[in-house]
């Protein structure tokens, strides 16, 4: 499993900024989002759909990339999947490992995964591509295409809108980072160019504390 350098010597500044922000908020993020999935039947339905398709395709390893404190990773494990988690933020990985001692978590980047070609049956990226500027998404989709086996699955969740929000505060902390409200049409096109076929596209209105509608794309690697 991978470990990213935290020196930031060559990485883009948005990556360093995102890691610093999530390292700062990790414990409170985990606490504040506790129980969130239990209140989101559509989210559970989509994750359940993904899990059933992985199993009916013969099973195999699944990776939750940008797993944060592991709330989705833990849910996927409870559905019977052989799942591990990878995140940019060491503090998030520690929090995930503390909460889910039986699951393997490691630090790593969406854009350069320490995984062999065609080695996983599926990837879930649940609100982790939101910190990737739209022009840099194709690099991530190319990397996910490399690690997912043919006919394997990719499930994405992200806030939609086609604009960027700069945060100066989050989860009770003063932190600076950007979140991109991606455009589902553009993302669908980029997935197609990377060699994925989108099979499910769902959008829902903002609920509870959310400020923007949410998009979910399930795609199959060609
Ligand atoms: C909004 S949180 C979502 C966490 C988790 N998926 C969930 O739904 O609770 C975004 C997560 O993506 C991670 N992340 C952001 N950019 C990343 C990258 N380039 N590679 C890996 N993880 C990344 C952050 O560290 C953070 O934990």
What small molecules does the structure contain?
Answer: S-adenosylmethionine
Kindly state the mean pLDDT as a whole number?
95
The largest β sheet comes out as:
7 strands, mixed
Q: What is the CATH architecture term?
A: 3-Layer(aba) Sandwich
CATH topology: Rossmann fold
Describe the strand arrangement of the main beta sheet, using strand numbers.
3-2-1-4-5-9-8
- How many strand units? 9
Strand content: 25-35%
Percentage of residues assigned to helices? 25-40%
User: Which class best fits the helix and strand makeup?
Assistant: alpha/beta
DSSP helical segment count: 6
Distance between the termini: 25 Å
Order of helices and strands: HHEHEHEEHEEEHEE
The CATH superfamily appears as Vaccinia Virus protein VP39
How would you sum up the global shape? Answer: globular
Describe the structure concisely for a colleague.
The chain has 222 residues and is of the alpha/beta class. The protein has helices at 13-32, 41-56, 71-78, 90-99, 137-147, 184-194, and strands spanning 61-65, 82-87, 105-107, 120-126, 148-159, 163-170, 173-181, 196-204, 214-221. Helices cover 34% and strands 30% of the residues.
